[in-house]
Amino acid sequence: MKTAELVTSHQRSSRPYPAGGRRALVYVVYDTRGDVEAYIPYALEKLREHCDHIIVVVNGNLTDRGRRTLETVSDILSERENVGYDIWGYKHGLDLLGPRIADFDEVVLANDTWFGPVRPFGPLFERMDKRPLHFWGMTDHLRVEPNPFTDSDHLAYHLQSYWMAVRKDMFLSPEWEQYWRELPPLTTYSDAVAKHEAVFTERFVELGFSGEVAFPTLTDKIENHAVLYAEQLLDAGCPTLKRRPFFQWPPFMDRLAVVGKWTLQAAERYGYPMELIYQDLARNVEPRTLNADAALFDVLSDADSTYDPERALRVVVLAHVFYVDMTEEILERVGFLPGSYDLVITTPDEERATAIRRILTERSLPGAAEVRVVESNNGRDQAAFYIGCRDILTSGDYDVVLKVHSKKTPQDGFAVGRHFKRQQFENLLHSANYVANALALFQREPGLGLAFPPMVHLGHPTLGHAWWQNRPGVEELAAGLGIAVPLDEVSPLAPYGSMFFARPEALALLVDAGWTYEKFGGAEAYVDGGLAHVLERLPVYAAGERGFHSRTIACADYVAASYTALDYNVDQMSATMPESTMHQIEFLKRAGDFEYGTTRDFIGIYARLHRPDEEVRLLSMYDRTERVRSAFWRLRHPRTWFHRR
């Protein structure tokens, strides 16, 4: 216990929570859509076992569905203007209690920034009820000097405000009433921390009230332990799992070696319904950030299968074939699917359809097979999928759809095109056991919407640039389709190459959008910024809006080649700058969006950021050095000088 931090020389007498006492809960919710994520009523239902009266305060407006959900788990439901963050939400809830607060022995102030209970609430309340104290918190934060929000003085040791329990002797005191009466306006997140969270504990301890923390800081490091040591807190019995580890900036988590996947495995091990976590995060976190923080990337095995044939999934393969000579290869790959599956091949004209049907007659397929001639090749595989196969996707006859197409990428070099095709097919359909394990993911996770290969980078300059000219179109379409999932800042999480496994329901927003071949345009429209390329980047966001999460999948052979190249490239880039990747990214972001590219430009940027008084000298020194190097190079390599420039 961190009790020593909370003791004063004029401490008031305190008492345990009385037997047969009554507890009230003020729980604050904020949702950008006005919806209520499923983890919230789950938490409130579990808290009902320990709370006699529940007030839910919503910062902002609720949808009708959200209101109905919260009405079933609360005694009082109140919507208010979204000002003052959760702190003024607490104040509003306390005001709603008014004089009736005297009817309770303890009031819990909690917000919706955590999943739980991962570990049961019972042992926590039982333990804290026995403690003679005035207030207690779930977790704490060590003193920080200087204060990071003001760069002066200090940030006091404090109990974190997402969970604070206060007993009668304290909340009936004049000091309590004065504190909330004089609570200042809170207009920023830093205000909420610096003007309340970091003030509350110190203020009431100085007034003589005693407090404790249920799950104290685990090390002497000045870090947010509730976020960075979430797994260890769960192991210690903490019932709450903060949401922040799964939307924190991944380079920051990487620098501190926080592996979100291990935290999720701990939550699953303790029996928390994981679909509640994935559903919330899929709707509210940038997908690429979530993919990194939660490690939603699976290297699937070829050695054995975890697929349960007793719960066989109904699978349909939708394959668009423009290059007929690839039909056999596609059929070979698709043949790795376990059990029965149906096959629908779309193609642009009757001549191709005839050739494809001839190939199909020579094969014995486990399910129904059909070849469809689509009305137009506008939009290519995208239009064939969303328009030509819409009836299949909306039929309700299938649990999983596999989307593939004949891919050659003739606009790129031979090796580049060959790699992209292999990257797609091998990471989707590598072997029988591999494909079975891909489908097993959908068996185990009812909220899994898509599974597809990771972003291609060998031979393609996608890293850091994969929005290309498509982001404005994605923003426009997302707004029109009601997709509020936040877009990734740098590159979208997307099935590049447009091949994937998916639940049809996860694609419903795209399937039901009413596309036409005319909207896709002809061959001239198949460019970045065109509808086909925009749609290629939308499935994960559309699935997320419906509460479905996505995973990237790869075979070990591909990871061995891809990771080594990626590791080497990052190592080379990191060698140009000091410190960690996180610091390097921050440095370059501070430099701004420069469109230069020479060493001289970079030195200028560096000097302006770190040595502004030395900029002129550093640049002139570089210029002199470069003139000497250039002269030396010309003497030794006269024939290559021109090409080097």
Q: How would you explain this protein's 3D organization?
A:
It is a single chain. The chain is α/β, with parallel strands linked by helices and 645 residues long. It is built from 29 helices and 19 strands. The protein has an 8-stranded mixed sheet with strand order 12-19-17-18-16-13-14-15, sandwiched between helices. It has a 7-stranded mixed sheet with strand order 3-2-1-4-9-6-10, with helices on both faces. Helix 15 links the parallel strand 14 and strand 15. Helix 12 packs across helix 24 and helix 27 (599-610) packs antiparallel against helix 28. The model is unreliable at 1-5, 593-597 and 632-645 (pLDDT under 50).
Tag the structure with descriptive keywords:
alpha/beta; eight-stranded mixed β-sheet; seven-stranded mixed β-sheet; 29 helices; elongated; disordered C terminus
Topology of helices and strands:
Elements: E1 23-29, H1 39-47, E2 53-59, H2 64-71, E3 76-80, H3 85-97, E4 106-111, E5 114-115, H4 121-129, E6 135-137, E7 140-141, E8 158-159, E9 163-167, H5 168-171, H6 174-181, H7 189-206, E10 211-213, H8 225-228, H9 230-235, E11 241-242, H10 250-255, H11 260-269, H12 274-284, H13 287-293, E12 297-300, E13 315-320, H14 327-334, E14 342-347, H15 350-361, E15 369-373, H16 380-386, H17 390-393, E16 400-405, H18 414-428, H19 432-444, E17 448-452, H20 471-481, E18 500-502, H21 508-511, H22 517-520, H23 531-536, H24 539-545, E19 549-555, H25 556-574, H26 581-591, H27 599-610, H28 615-636, H29 641-644
Parallel strand pairs: 1-2, 1-4, 2-3, 6-10, 12-19, 13-14, 13-16, 14-15, 17-19
Antiparallel strand pairs: 4-9, 5-11, 6-9, 7-8, 16-18, 17-18
Helix pairs in contact: 12-24, 27-28
